[in-house]
Amino acid sequence: MDCIFCKIDKGEIPSEKVYEDDDVFVIRDIDPKAEKHYLMIPKRHYKLIDEMTDADAAALMRGLRKIPSLAGRLGLDGGYRLVINQGDDAGQSVFHLHVHILGGQPLDFPDLKK
Ligand code: 5GP
Ligand code: ZN
Known about the structure:
Blueprint lengths: L3 H7 L6 E4 L3 E5 L7 E7 L11 H17 L9 E4 L15 E5 L11
Antiparallel strand pairs: 1-2, 2-3, 3-5, 4-5
């Protein structure tokens, strides 16, 4: 399958996993949009929330619930924001569902209508 994140998981594209368990792995975003920018990626390939099975949902939630225990090590002690881009309007560019973890600085929350 021609998927960047599946290739990273298999080690076919190099990227340091800063966290990994049976459900998810976490890497640094190659093009960070904040001082700290990670991606939490489910190990099972699916594109969209719409395609998630109940097992996928449980696996992702287990992953999200690990983040507080990783926050200190990842430089996210001050807080963080989770973002899941879905589809064209959101600018999703990699079609393997992933959660952006942004932090390491105060994050403004722009009014995107402007
Ligand atoms: P999306 O736009 O789909 O929500 O997010 C995809 C993210 O994956 C982008 O922030 C992009 O910088 C990141 N990305 C794309 N290719 C790679 C890669 O090869 N390695 C890493 N670490 N991040 C990547
Ligand atoms: Zn994939």
